[in-house]
Design a protein that fits this description.
The chain has ten helices and 17 strands. It is an alpha/beta fold. α3 packs across α4 and α3 crosses α9.
Length: 338
């Protein structure tokens, strides 16, 4: 049987292992993707360390997958062999639970996360459910498209559904893997974009990405600065630092919202008075469906938005993962296949 290289985790907390295994065959309503690139996301930590309930091992993780359709299973009519496609966090939904019947597929009771319940993109080939697949436009390379299927759709989808309108003040906290995309999206959507980071050295990049102003949180009281500008309609919190998020709440204007996409286990501290008196809100956002991913990819192709990436070969997944964890990546690590 034909074989492929895959990088698996044998047990929670165990190392990444490059192995050879049989190339899987797609089943009913599934497609096989020949993977060209797979982003390394911070959420891969959940699988690597076993922090997600119900995981089974060994497991091949990876949920920022770009490639081409290699084979289609029975019952698949939308996707054709050779078509450029990708898969993100949304790995599939049941279509029958209460949330799915309302069209809220991200709220599916049996929601599947790519690379969690089933094997993902740290491999030369992977199997995907047909409803989880997004078409990739030709203007985007595989290494560019891969991070957009998680970091990209999370920031794009949260901002476009935030209720902010063109001209509103939107602040983006953090200039990392999520933040450097959030600034670009906010700018191209027509928001008055303010970037928030730590250290004056980040200002040139923030302005280059489209921010009209940069606030150094180590030098100024960011909440006061935002208030002096009229208050933010939205603060997109991308850095997983709950203390830093808490310090921004008073920078929200009347009716403003703290939109949280940076995952942290620590609580956000806020008083009821902070929320009540100015009708403020705190809201989270969890990526998007395959259709949302397509919208993200097409918006990037149209506007010229691109992620900043560093690539490493599949066999060096452990090295790429450690680079991501260190925070030194500029800004998304992507595995490429031979």
């Amino acid at each position: 049987m034909p074989q492929m290289i895959a990088v698996q985790i044998r047990s929670p907390g165990g190392p990444f292992e490059a192995i050879k295994r049989e190339i899987p065959a797609p089943g009913q309503s599934q497609i096989r993707i020949r993977v060209q690139a797979c982003g390394i996301c911070h959420s891969d930590v959940f699988v690597k360390e076993g922090h997600w309930p119900g995981l089974q091992y060994p497991r091949v993780t990876g949920h920022e997958v770009a490639g081409v359709v290699d084979e289609v299973g029975a019952g698949v009519s939308v996707w054709k062999k050779g078509q450029r496609v990708g898969v993100g966090w949304h790995g599939g939904h049941c279509g029958q639970c209460e949330s799915c019947r309302r069209g809220d597929f991200m709220g599916c009771r049996y929601f599947q996360v790519t690379g969690f319940q089933e094997d993902g993109g740290y491999a030369q080939y992977m199997i995907a459910r047909q409803e989880a697949v997004a078409a990739i436009p030709d203007l985007l390379s595989p290494a560019e498209a891969a991070p957009l299927l998680c970091a990209g759709v999370t920031t794009f989808n949260s901002l476009r559904r935030s209720g902010a309108r063109a001209g509103d003040l939107v602040a983006v906290q953090g200039l990392g893997g999520l933040g450097h995309l959030g600034i670009q999206f906010a700018s191209k959507m027509g928001f008055h974009t303010v970037a928030i980071g730590r250290g004056q050295d980040k200002e040139p990049l923030a302005l280059k990405l489209g921010a009209v102003r940069y606030l150094d949180s180590s030098a100024v009281d960011v909440a006061k600065e935002l208030t002096s500008l009229g208050g933010a309609s939205v603060i997109l919190a991308t850095a997983p630092d709950s203390k830093a998020m808490s310090a921004l709440i008073d920078g929200l204007g009347v009716g403003g919202q703290l939109l949280v996409v940076g995952a942290s286990a620590d609580p956000i501290n806020v008083t009821p008075v902070q929320l009540i008196m100015a009708r403020r809100a705190i809201r989270g956002w969890p990526s998007g469906t395959a259709r949302d991913s397509e919208d993200t990819l097409n918006f990037c192709a149209l506007t010229g938005i691109r992620p900043m990436v560093e690539t490493v070969p599949l066999e060096q997944a452990a090295k790429g993962y450690e680079q991501m964890l260190s925070g030194k990546a500029r800004f998304r690590m992507v595995l490429t296949m031979n």
